[in-house]
Design goal:
heterodimer; A: 113 residues; mainly beta; six-stranded mixed sheet; four-stranded antiparallel sheet; 12 strands; globular; B: 114 residues; seven-stranded mixed sheet
Chain lengths: 113, 114
């Protein structure tokens, strides 16, 4: 079965600074990869997803992520963070032949003024 | 128009009680899920139904019983509630099973067992 690791439990960045959240996955075949964001007290909202094709995917709210098969990674990036980006971010991996999506433990993002 | 809705949003109850959480999706999806998010924000799948049929049943106590009266609804019934059941429960849906596709989440139900 697939699995996901998010090495950083908590990251703090200044508003306007760039952001990179790390995600590593384990799966034997081509994975389906997702980033979700959870604002306090809210459900999960999809930021972006990778199924195939171009390894750099663009998402909502100015986020992007790059799939690197050689590193089994799918890191999330944003060039300039806004205070409203403070939230919990989850990386998830799905697989073609099942709908059992596995989530990472999440990375909490704090944005300093 | 809410895509995936859950009721109630908050549920506070005593140990030993039986409670239900309802979930409805209006996206026309075939597959629905229940997840449990613990106090450390770890999100773990509990059940998955495809066209009213159970397809994923993780190691969950049999006090938890999902019920899918139709494709658009997946309710979660919990018997004999325990302190450790306190968590946020999320319902989700996806277009179909077996495609590893995007899941749409409800707003969550925060269950507190006293």
């Amino acid at each position: 079965a697939q699995s996901v690791t998010q090495p950083d439990i908590h990251i703090t960045v200044s508003e306007g600074a760039s952001l990179e959240l790390r995600c590593n996955y384990s799966y034997g075949a081509t994975p389906y990869l997702f980033w979700y964001v959870q604002s306090p007290g809210q459900g999960l909202q999809l930021l972006l997803k990778y199924f195939s094709g171009d390894t750099l995917v663009q998402g909502i709210k100015g986020f992007e992520a790059e799939f690197k098969r050689s590193q089994s990674s799918f890191n999330l990036r944003k060039p300039s963070v806004h205070w409203s980006d403070a939230a919990e971010y989850f990386c998830a991996v799905g697989a073609l032949n099942n709908n059992d999506m596995r989530f990472g433990a999440g990375t909490r993002l704090t944005v300093k003024p | 128009d809410t895509a995936v809705s859950q009721t109630p949003k908050y549920l506070v109850t005593q140990m030993g009680n039986d409670k239900s959480i309802k979930c409805e999706q209006n996206l026309g999806h075939d597959t629905m899920y229940w997840y449990k998010q613990d106090s450390k924000k770890f999100l773990k799948i509990m059940f998955s139904y495809n066209n009213k049929e159970l397809i994923i049943n993780e190691t969950v106590p049999n006090r938890f019983s999902p019920k899918s009266p139709d494709k658009a609804h997946l309710n979660l019934h919990i018997n004999s509630l325990e302190l450790g059941d306190s968590a946020v429960y999320f319902c989700a849906s996806s277009q179909r099973a077996g495609a590893g596709g995007e899941q749409f989440f409800g707003p969550g139900t925060r269950l507190t067992v006293l």
